[in-house]
Amino acid sequence: MKKLALILSLLASCSAWAQGDAEAGKAKAATCAACHGADGNGIMTQYPKLSGQHPGYLEKQLKEFKLGVTSGGKQGRNDPVMSAMAMPLSEQDMADLAAYYASLPISDNTTPESSIEVGQQLYRYGDAERGIAACTACHGPRGNGTSLSGFPKISGQNAEYVKLQLEKFRAGQRHNDMNAMMRSVAAKLTDGEITALSQYVGGLH
């Protein structure tokens, strides 16, 4: 029953998104380009690639950056830069920006040879003895996630950004994950495993 309730809540939240206009989003994305680049692939590796991401996920994050401010940090997602950027956006603005970046192609990435063994093991199989779920269960074998369920595409993402997010989930500094799923996984990962996993998904195809 809990799984059914989770699925229904995810589907309900996805149906609440406004219909985005990619062309309108392009016109509104000028400020975003300073960090995320004109092509949505990020200026520096600590910034996420937005290109090719599921629009519902992008829209959700913008809403939660705004919620982080309006709730005084008790809800949503907190980031000093993104929270300020999201505050003046209307729901239609968010939908348009999400539609625009989702329409762009993500740039290629590679995985260092040294990270494949550890990263692949954790991604595909997890670690049952330590209670670590396989990443593929939610993000899929190719790292494409699922739009309807709200799980993001992580393949091709900047490894440094993924690493920073896993560290924030582990420390409890980021807490906008459904049912604390990401916090539960990240809490059991070592620094070395976080690095390997971040680099592995970066080059996952």
UniProtKB/TrEMBL annotation:
NADP listed as a keyword: no
UniProt binding sites for heme c 1: C32, C35, H36, M82
Signal peptide residues on this chain, from the entry's feature table: 1-18
Binding site for heme c 2: C135, C138, H139, M182
InterPro entries documented for this protein: Cyt_c-like_dom, Cyt_c-like_dom_sf, Cyt_C_IC, Cytochrome_c4-like, Cytochrome_c_Oxidase_Subunit
One CC-aspect GO term: periplasmic space
Swiss-Prot/TrEMBL keywords: Electron transport, Heme, Iron, Metal-binding, Periplasm, Signal, Transport
SUPFAM superfamilies (alphabetical): Cytochrome c (SSF46626)
Keyword Iron: yes
Localization annotation: Periplasm
GO MF annotations in UniProt: electron transfer activity; heme binding; iron ion binding
Post-translational modification: Binds 2 heme c groups covalently per subunit.
Cytochrome c domain segment(s): 20-105, 114-205
Domain of life of the organism encoding this protein: Bacteria
Protein known as: Cytochrome C
Lineage, highest ranks first: Bacteria, Pseudomonadati, Pseudomonadota, Gammaproteobacteria, Vibrionales
